[in-house]
Amino acid sequence: MPALLYGQSASHPYENPRFQRLYATLRQPSSLVSKNLSLREVARAVEASLQHKVWLDRRVDGEQILQLESGQRTYQELLTLINSLSNTETTCLENIIYISPAHYIPRIEFSYWNLYTGSENGMWRKTASPLEWKTSIEVSELMSLLEKQQGFPLQERESVPHDRWASGSFPLCSHAARWTCVLAGFDGTIDRDARANWKFSAMLEVSNVRFEYSDLTKRYSKGKLQNWRTKWPDSIVTPRAAGRFLIEAPVAAHRELATMAWDAKLKTQPPSKTPVSEQAKYSLTLKEWTIGVGLPELAKQLGLEITPWPLPDNMMNRQIELTLKDATIDEMLQQIGKQANLDLKRVGKKIQVQVEKN
Q: Contact at 8 Å (CB) between 251 and 106?
């Protein structure tokens, strides 16, 4: 089946439920507008709005200023716009949005695919619990935390260059996804040495990967499969017994095969909005979340409108850092407003905003 490097696996990285949820979420509409915000601030705003981790490659200039004008677009289209303005590219590693310098994504996806599919016992695709570091951290310290979760050391990790990173976190995801995030910025990955120990290694040259599919003709019409073959002419499709097909193709081609079936379903489904309910409880974590960027996104998710809007610039730039668990909409708005020195009240299907008097 897959990776030409390490062996066989029945698990397709892009049929992972966490990736499927993120893929669907990125097709929802976004109203995020950025004026004089850095790429890092925009990434944090997207992360807070989607409640999905956004990881900036260490080689990306996170301080460059972006101007995102208003307009109707999905989150996927928003990420494409961010890429064009910042000379970056984006991929999804399960439920993590990874932003890298341009032209690096094929190598990053290749490394992730081989880790996820390559080990015989599936250790790299096992799910790791969420991880957070609340202060800046040496990369070596972060790798020690990952090793502790995984249960064994990584050989030759001293070859990873020294670097110090700001506070951050990983969601519930595979070991393959988080190790790829940490090492890709050093143009590195994980490979095996002559004794079959796992070690830090320079990224390998990109090549096609293999996967055996059992249900292609059931999932797709002949027309869709032919369109896919036309788009990826160098892919090799070999029929196997019992209606199975072995496909050797770029990682991106395998991802497209996994997502083609979802696209038709997503096009027929209206964007979902969280129903406003007096009994509903919400949990969220906001970090460096600004009123001007985050509040419209939150309102959209709740199916509410903000009035008056927009606010004066000095109010739009107010930052919020907040963690809430099992809070009602009114409690959530109260706590956000308290930090921003604003009175946020839900009246019907609107959020009314007033400046609090000191």
A: yes
The tokens for 277 are: 């309910």
- Rounded to two decimals, what is the model's pTM? 0.74
Measure the CA–CA gap between 102 and 104, rounded to whole angstroms.
6
**Residue 22 and residue 259 in contact, taking contact as beta carbons nearer than 8 Å:** no
Q: Which residues contact 312 (CB under 8 A, 6 or more apart)?
A: none
Closest CA to 304 of 256, 353, 258, 261: 353
For residues 39 and 56, the answer to whether their CB atoms sit within 8 Å is yes
Q: State phi, psi for 107 to the nearest 5 degrees.
A: -70, -40
Per-residue confidence in pLDDT tens, the chain, 358 aa:
333 333 345 688 998 888 988 998 898 888 777 777 899 999 988 988 888 999 999 999 999 999 887 777 899 999 999 999 999 999 999 999 999 999 999 999 999 999 998 766 588 988 999 999 999 999 999 999 999 998 888 899 899 999 999 999 999 999 999 999 999 999 999 988 777 788 999 998 899 999 988 877 777 888 888 999 999 999 999 988 888 889 999 999 999 988 886 665 555 444 444 455 566 777 777 766 778 767 877 887 787 888 887 777 677 768 788 888 888 888 989 999 998 889 999 988 889 998 765 5
